[in-house]
Design a protein that fits this description.
With 283 residues, this protein is of the alpha+beta class. It has twelve helices and six strands. The protein starts with a helix and ends in a 9-residue tail after the last helix.
Length: 283
């Protein structure tokens, strides 16, 4: 469809007949994501608030459909790359963020850590080196002031602000540690996402939300006891990328609900359903 025809279509969004508007909206949506840049230009040049509002809704619908397609493709992929999954989640709020930019920022954090890292160190000391760089030199830390902010679940915002929630801080920590060839993985502990360092000779746990505090299996057992929960193997062992992204989506649902943004919470719940195998959503 030529630009002249597209402009004519958009002009009909101002029509007084709701049936005409609905038909036009359907026609625009049928074109797909390719029309988004055109709609963005039209939004900037249009002076009618009602039309601008309709254009905003159309852009959001197209971007949300694109996100759902990306998430389904990621879910069906063999490797379910963790950073890619977290990038897809972030595009819900920041549709223009590029995966390559996140990769470059993480590469820089890895490089800063690699400069101070020594493979021959004892595991505790290796972790202390990472802690020193991430939480000391680079000033990453817990966003306790705005714990329920949706931005805490967005990798681009956390990499920029250096403040995040347990999941995003653990993801950054884990990706850097794994690039350093360390056996560090996420653990789905209730109420607190943590990490485990596990090889043939050692297993201990790391709380990235508390500046990389190292603790033991006994500490987890005590924590579970305080929560009056029955211990489960999943509270102690590594989880996969899919489980991490699911938990990040659950966090995002809770954040939007706390902010009173229930429509956004409902949209994120749909994303969660699509990658949950019909299991418990936890929301």
């Amino acid at each position: 469809m030529e630009e002249k025809e597209l402009k004519a279509l958009v002009s009909l969004l101002d029509d007084e007949d709701q049936q005409v508007v609905s038909h036009v909206e359907g026609k625009i949506l049928s074109i797909g994501k390719e029309i988004i840049p055109f709609l963005e230009r039209e939004w900037e040049s249009n002076l009618n608030p009602a039309v601008q509002g309709r254009i905003e809704e159309l852009i959001h619908t197209l971007q949300y459909d694109l996100l759902r397609d990306r998430l389904k493709n990621w879910y069906n992929s063999k490797d379910q790359d963790l950073l890619t999954g977290m990038w897809i989640l972030a595009t819900y709020q920041y549709p223009d963020i590029e995966l390559e930019k996140l990769k470059q920022e993480l590469e820089q954090i890895y490089y800063e850590t690699w400069l101070e890292f020594r493979p021959d160190l004892y595991p505790f000391d290796q972790i202390k080196v990472i802690n020193g760089v991430l939480f000391g030199k680079l000033k990453f830390g817990a966003n306790t002031k705005n714990f329920h902010s949706p931005g805490n679940s967005m990798m681009n915002i956390v990499l920029e602000s250096r403040k995040g929630n347990p999941i995003t801080l653990c993801v950054i920590y884990m990706l850097v540690a794994q690039k350093l060839k360390l056996p560090v993985h996420g653990v789905n502990l209730p109420n607190l996402f943590i990490l485990t360092y596990k090889d043939d000779n050692h297993q201990f746990y790391i709380n990235a939300f508390n500046r990389g505090l190292i603790f033991s299996k006994q500490d987890i057992e005590n924590y579970i006891h305080e929560l009056h929960l029955v211990p489960q193997p999943s509270f102690f062992e590594a989880c996969n990328s899919l489980e991490i992204v699911r938990r990040a989506l659950r966090n995002l649902v809770m954040s939007f609900e706390k902010m009173g943004e229930h429509a956004k919470a409902d949209e994120v719940k749909v994303l969660l359903v699509e990658i949950s195998d019909g299991g418990d959503l936890g929301v």
